[in-house]
Design brief:
CATH topology of the largest domain: UDP-n-acetylglucosamine1-carboxyvinyl-transferase, Chain
CATH class of the largest domain: Alpha Beta
Mean pLDDT: 95
Structural class: alpha/beta
CATH superfamily of the largest domain: RNA 3'-terminal phosphate cyclase domain
Shape: globular
Number of domains: 4
Largest sheet: 4 strands, mixed
CATH architecture of the largest domain: Alpha-beta prism
Distance between the termini: 24 Å
Order of helices and strands: EHEHEEEHEHEEEEHEEEHHEHEE
Length: 337
């Protein structure tokens, strides 16, 4: 039994999600206390509980403490089973975070699996669908994984109602990933999504992006969505290089001006564009687990965040793999042995 203190490190939900994935892949039980202790509302929220139940379902696990608000969970994995699964968060909680919990395990399943998840697809403090589709999954495919991910419908806070669908083909062994250079510039573009809100909200966001990044009108795209998926507003900025793509996002909130949402997203995008390291801080978090479960490798990232180090700590506790994080000329070199 592996004991985990959820208040250590960054103290958020990533510790729990990584532990769930690793428990199934390594067939080791764990007990976690102080779940999400460093968050404003600690304990299991709806999306975290859905991740627990999803992980339990795909491997017939015993999950003690799997209830709303619980700060302690004991998870004993059973045998992983391939199949078609459907998980409903029931709120606008993040579909992508639930998917990221079960994906590593399903890549090792005895057969192909289908996954359907309903909830939020574009959420604050979570990777939007676009990030998985454009940034993370292409690199996973480079490692030998075959994952088809589709956006069936958009889901925004607070309504939810979005849906993602995936087909996951098992990968006998993920190849090593080496990502030290971005490669040649390909293109950059921004998309502003609005549903059941005035179109000028998206127009104002795109105007800010155009000025801040000095992008032309053909790089700025307004995406009007059906009213019945709203109200909602999301902004994504995608920059593509030969070896990697980065997706920066912003989300509209009641009482927050469109210009503020766009300015914050533009500043994050500009910071990435002015750096030279290929892997942004959010993508770095996601690459650790598949690299540890596969043949390893290394990448250069813009920052070595507490989130990254907390994830490394959890992975090392479940596996025999060891990571190195060293300062490099253009950021930090992260390797797994």
């Amino acid at each position: 039994m592996i004991d985990i203190d959820g208040s250590e490190g960054e103290g958020g939900g990533q510790i729990l999600r990584s532990a769930l994935s690793l428990a199934i892949c390594t067939q080791q039980a764990f007990r976690i206390t102080n779940i999400r202790a460093n968050r404003e509302k600690p304990g299991l929220m709806r999306q975290h509980l859905t991740a627990v139940m999803a992980a339990a379902e795909i491997c017939d696990a015993d999950a003690e403490g799997a209830e709303m608000g619980s700060r302690t969970l004991t998870f004993r994995p059973g045998r992983l089973v391939a199949g078609d699964y459907s998980f409903a968060i029931g709120t606008a909680g993040s579909c992508t975070l639930v998917f990221q919990t079960v994906l590593p395990a399903l890549l090792t399943a005895p057969g192909e699996s289908g996954v359907r998840i309903t909830g939020g697809t574009h959420n604050r403090a979570a990777p939007p669908f676009d990030f998985l589709a454009r940034s993370f999954l292409p690199l996973l495919e480079r490692m030998g994984a075959k994952v088809q991910l589709d956006l069936a419908s958009y889901g925004f806070f607070p309504r939810g109602g979005g849906e993602i669908r995936a087909r996951v083909t098992p990968a006998p062994r993920l190849r090593a990933l080496t990502l030290h250079e971005r490669g040649a510039w390909v293109r950059g573009y921004a998309e502003a999504y609005v549903a059941a809100l005035p179109l000028h909200v998206a127009q104002r966001e795109l105007e800010v992006i155009g000025r801040a990044l000095r992008w032309s009108p053909d790089q700025l795209h307004l995406r009007g969505l059906p009213n019945d998926v709203g109200p909602g507003n999301a902004l994504t900025i995608t920059v593509e290089y030969a070896n990697v793509s980065e997706v920066v996002s912003g989300f509209g909130e009641r009482g927050v001006r469109a210009e503020t949402v766009a300015t914050q997203a533009a500043e994050e995008a500009r910071a990435y564009l002015s750096a030279t390291a290929p892997v942004g801080e959010h993508l770095a978090d996601q690459l650790l687990l598949p690299m540890a479960l596969g043949e390893g490798g290394s990448f250069v990232t813009t920052r070595a965040t507490q989130h990254l180090r907390s994830n490394i700590d959890i992975i090392e506790r479940f596996t025999q793999r060891r990571f190195t994080v060293e300062p490099a000329d253009r950021g930090f070199l992260v390797g797994v042995m």
